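Work Package 3 (structural annotation) set out to generate three-dimensional models for the target panel prioritized at the project kickoff. During this period the team completed the workflow that converts sequence records into discrete structure tokens, so that structures can be stored uniformly alongside our sequence database. As a representative example, we reproduce one entry of 491 residues exactly as it appears in the project archive.
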Amino acid sequence: MADLKNIDWNVASSIRDDDFFGTLSDSDKQTLFAAMTTKNYKTGDVLIKEGEEQTKMLIVTAGKIEKRKGARSSFLKRGDISGVLHFFARDPSYATLTASEDSTVSEIDSDHFKTLLSANPSLNTAFITFLSKLVRSRSNLINSIRASVLGSGGVRVAFFDSKAYMKEAFDAVNQKFGFEIVWIKEKLSEQTVAFATGCSVVCCFVNDTVNDKVISHLAETGVGLIAMRCAGYDNVDLKLATKLGLSVTRVPAYSPYAVAEHAAALMLSLNRHLHLAYVRTRDHNFSLNGLVGFDMHGKTVGVLGTGKIGKCLVYILRGFGCNVLCYDVREDPELATMQGVKYVSKDDLLVQSDIVSLHAPLLPSTKHTINAEALSKMKKTAILINTSRGGLVDSDALLDAVMTGKIAGAGLDVYEGEKAYFFENQSDKNMTDSTLSRLLACKNVLITSHQAFLTQEALQNIADSTLQSIKDFTAGKRGKDLPNAVVEEYK
């Protein structure tokens, strides 16, 4: 064993920025170095041959070691580390290591290192964190380490696109579930999917990328559940997820009231020009010119999509005294018999409504439901509201309609190109999306950044539903057996 008094702490300093050693406390470093064996090698001595079983991790403390694979070679110098990714699994050595000059190396074998991990939780955590960041396809390795060292059946959840308000809500609810949540600020994408290594569940939101490449990687690294903390799932390749055996869940009804009320707020704000009046009065401009609206009472509002959110909005609108026209591929029997509510064709809804509010899912069949043709059927005095999915509206066609007076205005909480902008502070950047930039400049357009869901009640419901889905998954339920499952044939 190495004598602590003889450890060259200058070498320790030289490897301080290494991904693994950089996570260690001084105490853990001392523990590790004390457990390592010091060996001296003469020029030409072979430490390990390519293809031989890698059983040791080593640190070069003096001299120079040649690392040769075929005709290619590189050199390990003082402070360099070799074997840390492979020795625990005893993988074949990637290259032949030969002392190119008299050298001193500190070594530790995998069995001794495993004993150290068992006795030192902080050292174990640092090693697992290191593997999770760097190893893309080693879930079996990580799981075996956790099982053999920690003896824990705990579930790790990679929580992508985390925000402070989400973390607060999930931390509170998770007290009764006890999952280990790894908070990741970045959105899930092909570039960030490696962060999920070592986790059995990923938790995603509306603007995460869950395409074929991401899902393939998740499957390779042992992820079994994609828990969407939202109602929409059009960003998930469900067909491939099902094929590869990954379960997908969502939150079908976190708070229909939150979204319906936000849709009503957009209607009122646009109709009564509250967004313009607010800016005026802040500048001490108390003129009422250009702020004339209309009574909601007695007006006709079209609700396109009468699921839970659409149905809530119908009740709100009836409270205002509006006549409500509805369209859905499945009629709600309660709404169909309600006074002042009538199911009609989509075309009739567009033609007759003073306000049109969208509450449909985004599917191949519903993409650009509101296009140039649909907008041409609406009244010139009509307002369009979209709190559902951005892709339901052809943004370029909408821009033309609001700028040329084909409709009176639009209230949007979603936008088909929102992924590059929404949920983040973009105030210090130039906007490259010319369509969104021009829509924001229109005085008859009011845009909020996908905040319709954002109420205290909704956040708690999202956390409750999502974590319950994870609990159901850990209890052995898969695919359709999960209460909030989404499977490919339903899309």
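Confidence is low (pLDDT under 50) at residues 1-17, 135-153.
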